[in-house]
Amino acid sequence: MDRCSCARGNRTKPLVELVSVAICTACTNLDRAGVRKHIRAALATGANRDEILAVIRMGTIMSIHSCSLGAPILIEEAGTEAVASKAKSTVPTPACDRMKAMGQWNQAWDPFFALDPQWTDQFMTTAAGIYGSGVFSSKEIELLSIAFDASFTHMYAPGTRRHIKSALVAGASVAEIMEVLKVCVAFGVAACNLAVPILAEELAKLDGQG
C-alpha cells in the first residue's frame, strides 16, 4: 500500500507504521506480536522513542470510551438530581481546562465530568500531556486517533467522526485519511494469523490418525 507520510524537520517519517502500532497496542486489541513487529518497523523507518511512547499512551486513554458510553446512561437512569451536587463542585480541574483551551475537549465527556470532575481531571492529565507535548503535529494526532477509533476491534463511530472532522481542519487530505482506514482494514489478516496455524495443526492430527 502507499505510504502515508508527514514531514518532520529534515526527514520524512512514514506514519503507516505508527498507525499500525496504534491499532495493535490499542487497549481494545493488545496484539503482542503485532506491537513488537510494528514497533521494530517504526524504529527502522525513523520513528523515535518519544513518538512510539506517545502512541502507546494514546492506546491507554481510549478506555475513556467506557465512560463516554456509560455516564450518559447512568445520568438518564439515576436522574439529573444525582449529579446536581457534583455540578456545583468547585474542585480545580486544570487538566480539563487545558484540554478546553487547546480545543481538544469533547462534549461527550461532559456527563462523566459532571459526575466526577476530580477523577476526570486526573485522567485528562495524561491526555493533555499527549496533545500538548509537541511530539506530534495536530494532523498526526488526528490521523492516529482515527486509527484507534475506526479499528475493527473498536469501531467507535462518534470518535471516528470527530477525529475525521478535526483531521480535515488540521490539513489532512481525504486520501491520507483513507490510507489510515485502509491500514485498519489490512489488520483483518489477524483472523488468518490466528486460525490458519490451528487449522494446519488439526489437519495434521487427522492425517496422523489415518
From TrEMBL:
SUPFAM superfamilies: AhpD-like. This is Alkylhydroperoxidase/carboxymuconolactone decarboxylase family protein YurZ. GO terms for molecular function: peroxiredoxin activity. It comes from the Bacteria. It holds the Pfam family CMD. Keywords: Oxidoreductase, Peroxidase. InterPro entries: AhpD-like, CMD-like. The keyword Transferase does not apply. Residues 117-200 form the Carboxymuconolactone decarboxylase-like domain. The lineage of its organism: Bacteria, Pseudomonadati, Pseudomonadota, Alphaproteobacteria, Hyphomicrobiales.
